Fold:
Amino acid sequence: GQQLNQSPQSMFIQEGEDVSMNCTSSSIFNTWLWYKQDPGEGPVLLIALYKAGELTSNGRLTAQFGITRKDSFLNISASIPSDVGIYFCAGQGGKLIFGQGTELSVKP
Amino acid sequence: KAGVTQTPRYLIKTRGQQVTLSCSPISGHRSVSWYQQTPGQGLQFLFEYFSETQRNKGNFPGRFSGRQFSNSRSEMNVSTLELGDSALYLCASSLFSSQTGGTEAFFGQGTRLTVV
Structure:
């Protein structure tokens, strides 16, 4: 079945550093979505990507839809303590398939 | 505009019992999907309903079932609960946009089910 490989699984960084995470798939997706989840809460949509090659920003977040339609990355610039959480990528080609998540820890 | 509402937020049940979880999607959204989230397995797709019909189904046993009503509200039922069913159950509502050609899914806060 369809699978997404998200990496890294976890990151422990210093406040102010930039962060990069990515997702790859063996399948083509029509849409890539990036979510952030805080403990005990539902995932919150950060960025949606609809076209191959599309680069979209939301504040300090930037995400790109890979030109092969099989990958996507998310960058966070100048991280702050409230960026802590688990970030998920999701690909849509019918149903929504999620990556395993990247747990981000930020040290003040 | 109200977001996705899931009830209850927390639930404790005993093995063998059954449970029903409820999800009210964003107004105008006709698609509702359910996910199970556990620390070891991540977000696992259960099923999707669109206009009262199940459109997609994940790899879960028949003890997991769902339905959608004419007002797009959805319920999920788990019968004969097992300890391994303890998880955060998440509901997402989505709407296809002809403008973008894509679909955005928005999640509720989830129902934390504990089976003892």
User: Anything to note?
Assistant: Residues 52 and 68 of chain A are 7 Å apart (CA to CA).
